[in-house]
Amino acid sequence: MGGAVADRIRRRVNATVHGGTIDLSRYDHPAGDPGLFGPGSTVWRVHGDLPGMFTGGIAALLLQSLHPLAIAGVDQHSDFRRDPVGRLNRTAGFVSVTSYGSTEAAEAALARVRRVHEYVRGTAPDGRDYSAGDPELLRWVHVAETACFLAGHQRYGRTPLTPGECDDYLREAAVVAERLGATGIPVTTAGLRAYLRRIRPELAASEAAAQAVDFLRGFSGAVGDPAERAVMRALTNGAVDLLPEWAARMLDVRRPAPVRILLDRPAVRALGAVFRYGCEPSAISLAATGRALGRRAEGSPH
After folding, report:
1. Rounded distance, CA 131 to CA 126, Å?
2. Where are the alpha helices (DSSP H) in the chain?
3. How many CA atoms, within 13 angstroms, populate the side-chain half-sphere of residue 130?
4. How much is the pTM?
5. pLDDT in tens, 6-25
6. Distance of alpha carbon 243 from alpha carbon 50, whole angstroms
7. Residue 129, phi then psi, degrees to nearest 5
8. What's the CA gap between 51 and 220, in Å, rounded?
């Protein structure tokens, strides 16, 4: 019975996050290849813990929306309204393969994103031109993402990172952003905080940001069956709780402290136990570990 329940949880999570069956060929060979990071890295530790990644990912989308140029690019070029699950699958796939994939698979994913960025350009509602390949805009998107992933791990991860390990994570994760073309990535928590202080005057709660918030809230209330909707609402509330207070205020998504402490956080922690029961160890981490240590994953044809 227990195995059947765990298998059902795993299938539903994989269907939502990855779109169904995971292509392990990007993770299980060649033997001895650590990929961009490898076992023992803080990236593997943070990105392999689902509760922090789920809430951190949603929080990152909310935080990123506060940059007028970043949200203009999403608003004008993304199909997230028409195909939100597809957008989630592609984003999750990129994070997974650059974190755990072989060097070749990770580099191929980075090259695809760089090609897409060549076409993501236009004019924001305030009249400024933007380009997804702009190093400063790439910096913002990356910092918002890693800050939220780190906040999610520190709150909901099995074992929070030490201050030194937090810096290790930021330093390691910067590799992906730099290979996409970002510059000036903060690689310490002190540097991250300083960057967020500097960029705050450039952020704004635009109409497109408000629409993104409304969409995320509506999506969490419309997806799947009642159980899945409850899960999405809980994760979205947990994500809001990860945002810096100033960002939650700008987006008008603040929830009272007693609600966040007594309801939102326990709900995410309970879900985290369910995710870990059903999804750990993940097929991706097993395949990547076997590859990095020079072993073939069971059943692999490679």
Report:
1. 15
2. 2-18, 42-47, 50-64, 68-77, 84-100, 103-117, 135-156, 163-180, 189-199, 207-222, 226-242, 245-251, 257-259, 265-279, 283-292
3. 24
4. 0.92
5. 888 888 878 777 777 788 99
6. 18
7. -80, 150
8. 16
